[in-house]
Fold each of these.
Amino acid sequence: MPIDRPAPGRPHVTAAVLAGGVGARMGGPRPKQLLPLAGRTILERSVAAFCAAPQVDEVVVVMVPDLVAEAEKIVAEGGHGKVSRIVPGGASRSDSSRAALRAVAHRGGGDLVLLHDAARPLVSGRIIASCVAALAEAGAVGVAVPSSDTVVEVAADTRGHEVIRSVPDRAVLRRMQTPQGFRLDVIRRAHERALADPGFVATDDCGVVLRYLPEEPVRIIPGEEGNIKVTHPGDVAVAEVLLRTLEEER
Ligand SMILES: Nc1ccn([C@@H]2O[C@H](COP(=O)(O)OP(=O)(O)OP(=O)(O)O)[C@@H](O)[C@H]2O)c(=O)n1
Ligand SMILES: C[C@](O)(CO)[C@H](O)COP(=O)(O)O
C-alpha cells in the first residue's frame, strides 16, 4: 500500500493502533474492538481517525493473533490506505506495544510513534495534532484530563474492609488517555530496560518511560472527556451518544 512521505526535515510519524486485547471486562464472544459503533467497528473507527490525520504518515495495527485476517479484511474493505502492517499482539498491553515497536524497527530513533488504544475510537484530530506538535520539543507525550471526582487511595483494614488510606490533591491528578506519543529512541530504550525487570508491570507506555527512563520528562497535553475507552458493557451505548453529538457539532 502507498505510504505518505513526511515533508523533508520532519520526522516520520507512525500511529500504532493497539487491538491485541481480549476485552475480558466487556465480556462477549469476541473482543470489543470488533463490536459495531454506529455501523463501523470500534477498530475501524480508531484506524480511520489516524488515517485522516495529516500529521500521521503511516498506521500499524496490532491485533489479537487469531484475528489478524479479520483486521486485514476490515482495513481493506474500509480503504484505509495509510495502514502498512497488521501484526499479532502479545499477552499484555505492553507486549502489544513492543510488537508495534518491532514493526517500526527500521525507523530512525528521531522518528515518532503514537501508541493508541483501539478501544478509544472517538479520539479527535485535535488530540492527534497536539500530540505530534508537542513531540517537536518533548521525547514523550501523554494525553490526560483532570479528574472531576475526588480520587482516593484505598487499603484493606484488619477485617478485610476497604478503607481510605489517603486523599491525594486532586489539582495534581490527571486521568491518562491515548494516544501516547514518543520519539522512537526514547520508547525503545524504556521498553528495553523494562524487559530486563522481572517485576515489570505497566498499564500504559508513559508509565514505562517514567519508571525506566526517569531522566526523560513526560509532557502532558489536554485530552478530552469524549475520548473514552470502551471498557465495560454500557460503554458502547455511551460512545454512540458521544459520536452522534460530535457528528452534530461538525
Ligand atoms: N494484550 C493486549 C491487551 C490490550 N491491548 C489493547 O490495549 C487497549 C487498552 O486495553 P483494555 O481496554 O484493557 O483492553 P482489553 O485488554 O481488551 O480489556 P480487558 O482488560 O477488559 O481484557 C485496547 O485497545 C486493547 O485491545 C492490546 O493491544 N494487547
Ligand atoms: C493506556 C490507558 O488507556 C490509559 O488510560 C490505560 O492505562 C489502559 O489500561 P487497561 O487496563 O489496559 O484498560
Note: The chain has one domain: 13-142+173-244.
Amino acid sequence: MHDRVWSCIVSTPQTWTVGVTGATGYAGGEVCRLLAGHPQLRLAGVHAASSAGRRLGELQPHLWPYADLEVRPSGVEDLAGYDVVVLALPHGESAAIAAQLPADTLVIDCGADHRLDDPAAWARWYGSEHAGSWPYGLPELPGQREQLTGARRIAVPGCYPTSVTLAMAPALAAGLVENDVVVVAASGTSGAGKSAKTHLLGSEVMGSVSAYGVGGVHRHTPEMVQTLSRAAGAPVSVSFTPTLVPMSRGILATCSARLAPGTDAAAARAAYASAYADEPFVHLLPEGQWPTTAQVLGANTVAIQVAVDPDVGRLVVVAAVDNLTKGTGGAAIQCANLALGLPETTGLPLVGVAP
Ligand SMILES: NC(=O)C1=CN([C@@H]2O[C@H](COP(=O)(O)OP(=O)(O)OC[C@H]3O[C@@H](n4cnc5c(N)ncnc54)[C@H](OP(=O)(O)O)[C@@H]3O)[C@@H](O)[C@H]2O)C=CC1
Ligand SMILES: CC(=O)N[C@@H](CCC(=O)OP(=O)(O)O)C(=O)O
C-alpha cells in the first residue's frame, strides 16, 4: 500500500486549474491554444462578456478540445476558485476584476492596466486612474526573472514593446549606443483584436501597408521608454512608428540608434550573444540571416539579428515575434510557469511553422 501511495506521489505531477477571461478574443484564444499542450496547467473555464452563454467551439473553432465549454460571464464570483486567472480583456477592464480576486490566486493580465510604473504616464496615455503596476512579464530583462518567480500578479508586456525591448536592451545595457532609439515596426492585423474595425476590413488591408499612430502618439511608446530606460540605467527616448501589413500574425521591428564611440560590429554581436546565451526563447540568428515573421509563427520565440552601419554610425537591430504567442499568450504561459515554479519552457512551442 505504501509503495502504491509513494509511486502515485512521485509519478503524478501537480496540476493547476486556469480560468481565461477574454477567451473568445485573439489573445485569450491563444492562451487556450497553448494550454491545450501544457502538461500541468488545465483550462477549467472560459469567460467573456457579450459571448457569455455560447459554446467556445462556436466562436473559436480551432480550439476543438474545448468546443463544449460554455462561455461564462466575467464577474468576480464567476472567476473565483481557479488557481490561475488569465485576463485577456480590453485595457481598462482588468484592474477592477483583479482587485477583487484572492491574493493567493495567480493573476496574469495580458492587457495594459498594470504595465506602467508611473501613474502620470498612465493618466497621460490611457486617460484613467492608475491601478498600480505589477511585475513586468518579460523574464529576459535583466533581474526580471527573479521578480516573476513566485509572483501572484503579473503584467504581460504589449506586443510591440516585447519585440523592441528584446531588440534594444542588450545594446543599451552595454552602453553600445546613445539613449535615443528609432523604431519602425510592422504588425499583422490580429494585433488590433477580433472586433471588426473599419481600417481592418479585408479590402482596406489587402495589398497595402499603412502607417498609423505616427508622431509619438502610440500608447506603447511609454512602455518602451520604461523598459529601455531600465535596461540603460538612464532615460531613453523612443521614436516609434507602427505599420499595419496584410497578414494575420507577426511583428517585425526594425530598431536603430547612434553608435557610442568605439562600438564596432564585433562588440555589438558579442553583447547580444552574451545577453541571450542562456535564453531559450531568444534566437540570435547566425550572421547573414535576417528575422522573418514566418519563422516565429506560433512559437514563443523572438528572432533577432544585429548589424552596424558604419557609414551613418548606427546600430540596426531587427526582431520578429508572433504578437499572439511571445507577444502575449505565450508570454502569459511563460510567466505562469515561472510564478508556479515550473521549468520556464513547459508546454511552450520553441519552433515556428514557416513557411
Ligand atoms: N491581439 C494582440 O496581438 C495582443 C493583445 N494584447 C492584449 O490582450 C487584451 C485582449 O486583446 P485581444 O484578444 O486582441 O482583443 P479581442 O477584441 O480579440 O478580444 C477581447 C475579449 O475580451 C472580451 N471582453 C470585452 N470586454 C469585456 C468585459 N468588459 N468583460 C469581460 N470580457 C470582455 C471579449 O469578449 P466578447 O466575445 O464577449 O466580446 C473578448 O473575449 C487587450 O488588452 C490587448 O491589449 C496584448 C498583446 C498582443
Ligand atoms: C495592429 C494593431 O492595431 N496593434 C495594436 C497593438 C495593441 C496590442 O495588442 O497591445 P496592447 O496589449 O497594449 O493592447 C495597436 O497598435 O494598438
Note: The mean pLDDT is 95.
